[in-house]
Design goal:
globular; five-stranded antiparallel β-sheet; 112 residues; Aminopeptidase
Amino acid sequence: MTEFSLKERVSKPIKPLTIHPVVGDRIYLRRLLVTDVAEDYLAWLRDDEVVSHLELRFAHHTLESLRHYVIGGMAARDKLLLAFFLRVMIGTSEIYRSIGSTGIIMGPMWGF
């Protein structure tokens, strides 16, 4: 196994994360888009029960800050923002390549 210096690892180009939509009988998963940012998504982030175990519970969000977050996530090479749908969006996920971390938000009204 070849050892690389930190400088070599950092300067090595990172391929952007991609995902093809995953479609099931009742649910589908795809990349989160700026067009998904809406009042219901913002309401989830302001719901103490929904965000009780997430770091974002400490931040105050607006539609504008949420749009900036999604735009940043779309451009990032080390994370992937996903959206879960039934007929409407029911949740989101953030997956980081470098640290193997993920967070999931499921809105309180799933429509089952």
